[in-house]
Design goal:
Order of helices and strands: EHEHEHHH
Shape: globular
Strand content: 5-15%
Number of strands: 3
Radius of gyration: 15 Å
Oligomer: single chain
Structural class: mainly alpha
Low-confidence stretches: none
Strand order of the largest sheet: 1-2-3
Distance between the termini: 31 Å
Length: 107
């Protein structure tokens, strides 16, 4: 399930995390955030909750990457373990990564 968290002064992010935990859905929920502050807060409340950054402008990418995991090694691990999909605005980079992994593993 993808929870699309909108920017709102009344949204209780602690409650979102606690309800996700209460229902045993930490590994079944992706929390989509729109600001780095929201990303940092969600990850500080529970670092195991999966997050997805909805990035409004290309200039914001570095901040999101610094606030949460997005390394090449982690992407490689996701691909190797058969992730169903990865959202990216850089499909040629992702295609090259997949090709490199296949070549290294003899696929």
């Amino acid at each position: 399930m993808l929870l699309d968290i909108k920017v709102s002064p009344v949204l209780d992010k602690k409650k979102v995390v606690r309800l996700t935990e209460k229902h045993g859905a930490v590994l079944d929920v992706i929390v989509g955030v729109r600001t780095i502050d929201d990303l940092k807060e969600i990850r500080s409340l529970n670092p195991n909750i999966r997050t997805l950054g909805f990035i409004k402008k290309v200039d914001y990418i570095e901040g999101f990457a610094a606030a949460g995991p997005a390394s090449r090694e982690e992407l490689e691990e996701l691909i190797v373990h058969g992730v169903s999909g990865i959202l990216t605005a850089k499909p040629t980079i992702m295609q090259q990564l997949v090709a490199d992994i296949r070549k290294a593993r003899g696929f």
